[in-house]
């Protein structure tokens, strides 16, 4: 009885400390109250009240701003968030807030008698939940970044074909990138957004090589990185862009076919574990079960004699 009580007290202390840290100052509270009073007068003019999601997002942001962070981790996390598609400046703060809130919630659920009906609360379970809640958001972001990179990798061959057609029709490389980005907006929105960002960087005055390297870093796709290297070398040595794109497109489609063949070759190995643990036991029960029952009925009376 003492360990659950200590766990409950420890969890309440964490929640109380978080609430005290997030409590706004008196001047901030007065300003917020004045803003609420003045906003009620302007809502009749068409302004909508703040939704619950925005309020929850504000709480998560305040937690993320006060959460401890490692300087070595910031660059890796920011790059991973960008690769997952979250480019805003507040994405890193929101991620830290979600990680802290989720870790505290997992600790409170597993270390306090809140879910005592399902499992027995314990300090060890609370610490395991705390570690899981701290690591799980990073795993989710890595999974989202991997799925987005896979979608971009699948769409790259079609984008190269459109780019070859555009360049051979007389467009320059910058105009071809802009055209392909607008054409792929419906079918491949991820790659279209990246190409639009390249176009915006070029309009802002950034060098083409730097803009292309940025898109390779933002996506984390090795095929796109190879394409960027090829385009930079083509621009540097003055070779034909259309011919280089056509050769790379054929190479990329060959790599896609080889990846598909590799995945098909791995299917047999991956099917071993479901067969052994799920299908074979059922087959054994159906085939050997009746014979085993017959043997038991025959041999047990003989053994008793």
Structure, explained:
The protein has 305 residues and is mainly alpha-helical. The chain has two domains: 2-147, no CATH class; 149-268, Receptor-associated Protein, CATH 1.20.81. The protein has twelve helices and no strands. It has helices at residues 2-22, 26-42, 52-66, 71-84, 91-111, 123-168, 173-183, 189-203, 208-219, 222-237, 241-270, 272-304.
Tell me, briefly, the overall form: flat
Distance between the termini: 56 Å
Which range does the strand content fall in? Answer: under 5%
Q: What do the pLDDT scores average to? A: 79
Helix content: over 70%
Number of domains: 2
Order of helices and strands: HHHHHHHHHHHH
Radius of gyration: 30 Å
Please tally the β strands and state the result: 0
Q: Which parts are unreliable, with pLDDT below 50 for 5 consecutive residues or more?
A: 40-49
The helix/strand class is mainly alpha
Main beta sheet strand tally, sense and closure: none
Number of helices: 12
């Amino acid at each position: 009885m003492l360990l659950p009580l200590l766990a409950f007290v420890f969890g309440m202390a964490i929640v109380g400390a978080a609430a005290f840290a997030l409590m706004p100052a008196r001047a901030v509270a007065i300003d917020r109250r004045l803003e609420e009073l003045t906003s009620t007068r302007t809502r009749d003019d068409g302004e909508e009240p703040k939704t619950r999601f925005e309020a929850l997002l504000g709480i998560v942001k305040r937690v993320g701003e006060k959460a401890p962070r490692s300087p070595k981790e910031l660059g890796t996390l920011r790059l991973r968030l960008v690769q997952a598609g979250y480019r805003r400046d507040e994405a890193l703060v929101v991620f830290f807030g979600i990680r802290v809130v989720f870790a505290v919630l997992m600790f409170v659920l597993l270390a306090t008698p809140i879910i005592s009906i399902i499992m027995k609360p314990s300090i060890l379970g609370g610490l395991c939940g705390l570690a899981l809640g701290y690591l799980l958001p990073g795993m989710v972001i890595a999974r989202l970044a991997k799925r987005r990179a896979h979608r971009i990798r699948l769409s790259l061959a079609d984008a190269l074909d459109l780019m070859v057609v555009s360049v051979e029709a007389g467009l320059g490389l910058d105009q071809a990138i802009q055209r392909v980005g607008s054409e792929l907006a419906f079918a491949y929105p991820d790659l279209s957004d990246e190409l639009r960002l390249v176009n915006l960087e070029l309009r802002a005055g950034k060098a083409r090589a730097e803009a292309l390297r940025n898109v390779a870093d933002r996506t984390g796709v090795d095929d796109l990185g190879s394409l960027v290297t090829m385009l930079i070398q083509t621009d540097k040595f003055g070779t034909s862009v259309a011919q280089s794109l056509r050769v790379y497109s054929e190479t990329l489609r060959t790599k896609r076919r080889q990846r598909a063949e590799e995945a098909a070759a791995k299917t047999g190995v991956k099917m071993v574990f479901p067969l052994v643990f799920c299908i074979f036991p059922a087959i054994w029960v159906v085939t050997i079960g009746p014979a085993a029952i017959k043997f038991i009925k025959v041999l047990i009376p003989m053994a008793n004699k």
